[in-house]
Amino acid sequence: MATKDRIAGAALALFALFVLEESRKLPLGSLREPGPSFVPVLLAALLLIFGTCIAASGGQSEGFRSLRWRELPHAVAILGACGFSAWALERLGYRITVLIVVFLLVKLVEKKSWLATTLVALALSFGSFYLFYTLLRVPLPLGPWGI
Amino acid sequence: MLDTLQNLYLGFTVALAPNVFLYAVVGCVIGTLVGVLPGVGPLAGISLLLPASFGMDATSAIVLLAGIYYGAMYGGSTTSILMRIPGEAASVMTCIDGYAMTRNGRAGPALAIAAVGSYIAGTVSVVALMLLAPPLANFALRFGPPEYCALLLLGLLALAYMSGGSIVKALAMAALGLLLGMIGIDPMTGFFRFAYGVVELGDGIGVVPVAVGLFGLSEILLTAGEEAPPEVKKPRLADLLPSRQEWRDSVWPIGRGTVLGFLIGIVPGSAHIISSFVSYAVERRVSKHPERFGHGAIEGVAGPESANNSATSGAFVPMLALGVPSGPIPAVMLAALMVHGVSPGPLLIQQQPKLFWGFIASMYVGNVVLLILNLPLVGVFVNILRVPYHFLYPAILIFCVLGVYAVNGSVVDVWIMIAMGALGYILRKLDFETAPIVLGVVLAPMLEMSFRQSLAMSSGNYTIFFSRPIAASMLAAGACLLLLSLLPLLRRGADWRGALGLAASDEKEGPHET
Asked: Could you say which DSSP state residue A134 is in?
């Protein structure tokens, strides 16, 4: 049966195999004189062993299908908003990016009123910019027209 | 002893002079603010204000910068406890039980114990700094690459051994963290490893994006979509102070955290981070009820918070006594002293008694200032929880992005945080602990460097790890832990850890599992 531990163990083992494959591009060195891929190979081998152990002994753990993913659509939306902020931060500047991200989350995801959304977005965007950029001198990206 | 008291009196006359006292207070206030705001850690805070200290005299400058340092350590616990966002890596362990206490309506006591524990640890470790600086610094000097390598291995094994869930899962997470820490330029040969053409990955993956992603972002992903938003019990005024039982439960963890933090603090490296991990592991190990950890055990807040503050004072030992910085923050402070023409080292105490003892006395003063500043603010901070969650989580998210970006001014760090957030979300759904990943990322560069330096020292002879007494003792201790962890295989399923009070129970971090 596909249990949580079996899936997780198999994923870890697969990741370890991927690292081992990628490490072949780098010199391994020798036992006496380890090269740049020596320690990664060692760690990937350990991860492979641990992953296999977890998968092998994971028959008794909770079934993977019993996991509830009710929050998944919300989580994907939040990750999307984060991805947008990473893409837009240096293109649109901090204030416009925050304004859009907060609008996306509060209005579209949480479905709050226009007034509440506008107030929260403006306060967060301009308030945090003033605190960090103006008062604390943290360098934050400016967008078009210096906004 | 009489000489020490006379010197301390001299120090207090310096520290209580109005201008020096003012700088201590200003440093503490700025430090607390820096610690409360996620992402702006003590290093960034000190670096930003370093140029401002050039116009001051040397004593005022070092007092101001030290105030920021331990103020940030105090303040860093606030976001960890209230929002599960570690302001910096040293606060990671506070997130686990501190945030669980918040979910149980005990945010006030968690913040109060963190402040009191930090005060006690800070004050006691200053006394230790005063009395033990020279001999302890000499001991720390005996640590070469083999000893560091053994110490780091022992730390990882101890954390895995003492973790609440399956030891194999904890070791797998530590290995995953160590692998993530391998990304970047190999310091010995200059090869780019696993960077895939992303230049920003040359310096490796930062601890802040990993910690904020695994803890802060994954928490938002798990809770924001719940039909009923996370129920955070709003504390009443009477609930802000710890109960008698909570005080009793915190006494020994604060004591142990203080001693551990100070001893680990004098060892060069990311001492204040490691000290909080070790303290949490020790508290869980010695507790009569280890199953409470992860569900809001106050010992899990008191120990690590005391340890990371105590390590702050410990870090000053090699800096003042030997002129050797034990990490990036003491290094910046050392630079500040050198700008003023002061050379820290064995002769500092004789040549600059006013500066040395004034600095020591200002740390006592700073700790009192921080306690006075932080305890009344507990009520103010706790009020953040009254903001409805659908408005609070976008704000937390913005602070996560801002804090991570501000560290290096790099969007790549934001992408790393997002990837770590998604990874943390999946791992927590699958009942894996994420703290060992953070420790792995912190230790990986040091572990690899010390391992390869040791082999370079011995021309590839592995006996160097066993022929040096300190390294050999630590490796022997690590081997014992490993053997103990293999016993269940020999006993065919007998849960020996259950007998030791460390049963692989259903305890996990995070509210969704509680």
From this structure: I
The answer to whether the beta carbons of residues B333 and B319 sit under 8 Å apart is: yes
Q: How far apart are CA B137 and CA B152, in angstroms?
A: 19
Torsion sign across C-alpha atoms B402, B408, B412, B417:
negative
**Alpha-helical regions (H) of B383-501:** 389-408, 411-429, 435-457, 464-467, 469-490, 496-499
- Tell the burial category of B447 from Cβ atoms under 10 Å away from its Cβ (0-12, 13-18, 19+): buried
CB burial class (10 A; 0-12, 13-18, 19+) of residue B382? buried
Out of B186, B393, B405, name the one closest to residue A89 (CB).
Answer: B405
Q: Is A10 on the interface with B (CB under 8 A)?
A: no
Q: What is the pLDDT of residue B404?
A: 84
Tens digits of residue pLDDT in B163-209: 656 788 888 999 999 999 999 998 888 888 988 888 888 888 888 78
Element of type H or E holding A45: helix A38-56
To the nearest whole Å, the CA of A112 is away from the closest chain B CA by 9
Contact across the interface for A124 and B395, Cβ inside 8 Å: yes
Angle at B366 between CA B362 and CA B371, to 5 degrees: 155
Measured between alpha carbons, how far is A19 from B182 in angstroms, rounded to an integer?
11
CA distances from B208 to B152, B180, B212, B400, B403 (A): 20, 13, 6, 10, 9
Q: How far is A65 from chain B (nearest CA, A)?
A: 12
What percentage of chain B reaches a pLDDT higher than 70? Answer: 80
For residue B472, the distance in angstroms to the closest alpha carbon of chain A comes to 19
Mutate which of B178, B391, B513 to test chain A, going by most A C-beta atoms within 10 A?
A: B391
Is the C-alpha dihedral spanning B55, B57, B60, B64 positive or negative?
positive
**What count of Cα atoms within 13 Å lies in the side-chain half-sphere of residue B333?**
32
For A121-141, the pLDDT digits (tens) are 999 999 989 888 887 777 889
Q: Which residues of B touch A61 (CB under 8 A)?
A: 431
Beta bridge partners of B49: none
- The backbone region for B10, taken as left when phi is positive above 0, alpha when psi lies in -120 to 50, beta otherwise, is alpha
CA B347, B352, B355, B360 torsion: positive or negative? Answer: positive
Distance from C-alpha of B293 to C-alpha of B476, rounded to nearest angstrom = 28
User: What's the ipTM?
Assistant: 0.94
Alpha carbon distance B34, B43 (integer Å): 10
Strand partners, B6: none
Mutate which of B40, B49, B399, B402 to test chain A, going by most A C-beta atoms within 10 A? B402
Q: For position B438, what pLDDT does the model report?
A: 83
Confidence (pTM): 0.76
Would residue B460 be called left, alpha or beta, if left means φ above 0 and alpha means ψ between -120 and 50 degrees? left
Instruction: Note the pLDDT tens digit of each residue in B248-288.
Output: 999 999 999 998 888 887 765 556 677 888 888 888 888 88
